Amino acid sequence: MARPLAAPDNPSPTKRDYQVPAVVRAIDILEFIAAKGEVSFTEIFSHLELPKSTTYQILSTLSQRGLVRHEGDSAKYSLGLKLFEMGTQAVARLDVRSEALPVLRELVARTNETCHLGVLDGTEGVYLAKVEGTRPVRLHSWEGKRLHLHRTAMGKALLAWQPPETLRRLLDSIDLPRATANTITDRARLEEHLELVRQRGWALDDQENEPDIRCLGAPVRTIAGGVAAAISISGLASQLDGEYLLELSRLVREAGQELSRKLGGQ
């Protein structure tokens, strides 16, 4: 008699053949509760089209393990603090630079332009990663370099989505030195410009930090919706223009969104 096939030692987690229905249903329930905040037992099995008995068994198990709450007089379920604990541990273990490098390399492959990852450090930005483009131009930037927030696309992306009180404190603390004729040195004008950045979802440094250089930046979101970092594309102003500039704005936003998802952000 032929022996049954043994399960592989290292099954690929990406193969749909290995999905366990009970686990899939449990995840569906958790995602539904997360989307709604609080939901009743009836809402869960009705919306997900699950048998009542199956729904009850899964909810009981999730509740016992602290993944959902069903407390007091409330007839509704909500996410348990165990999920918050697990999510916090997962985020704490993420290396932003390591997660960002594949995204930056893909962005360079699609644009041929130099791309950076940066974070906010006090009242300055700091480059955490740089991937050189394939064009002959070489930018005066390096990993660890600090940058002004008001005159770089990276800095504007880091500033624009800060909570209002945090933004006010930052603007109170930073100087606005001029680097080129295009540098914004007036606070009121900078605040108006940051509102435009928020509206369109990306930032532009139009030869404001270096002559003949344009940069575009987009935010990288945290799990709470704030800004964890920013991604930028830099190149010659003569080349980053017109329809190509608009295409780059789409690509830098997509890269920011991709890294946000990798970091568990929105």
Description:
It is built from 9 helices and 9 strands. The protein is of the alpha+beta class and 266 residues long. The protein folds into 2 domains: 17-82, Orthogonal Bundle (Arc Repressor Mutant, subunit A), CATH 1.10.10.10; 93-262, GAF domain (Beta-Lactamase). A 6-stranded antiparallel β-sheet has the order 6-5-4-9-8-7. Strands 1-3-2 form a 3-stranded antiparallel β-sheet.
Write the layout of secondary structure elements.
Blueprint: H1 21-36, E1 39-40, H2 41-48, H3 52-64, E2 68-69, E3 76-79, H4 81-92, H5 96-111, E4 114-121, E5 124-131, E6 146-147, H6 153-160, H7 164-173, H8 187-200, E7 203-206, E8 213-221, E9 227-236, H9 242-262
Antiparallel strand pairs: 1-3, 2-3, 4-5, 4-9, 5-6, 7-8, 8-9
Shape: elongated
CATH topology (level 3) name of the largest domain = Beta-Lactamase
Helix content: 40-55%
Tell me the CATH superfamily of the largest domain.
Answer: GAF domain
- Rounded to the nearest angstrom, the distance between the terminal CA atoms is 54 Å
Number of beta strands: 9
Strand order of the largest sheet: 6-5-4-9-8-7
What is the CATH top level name of the largest domain?
Alpha Beta
Radius of gyration: 24 Å
| Mean residue pLDDT | 88
Largest sheet: 6 strands, antiparallel
Structural class: alpha+beta
The tally of helices reads 9
Number of domains as seen in the coordinates: 2
**Topology pattern, helix = H, strand = E:** HEHHEEHHEEEHHHEEEH
Unreliable segments (pLDDT under 50, ≥5 consecutive)?
Answer: 1-15
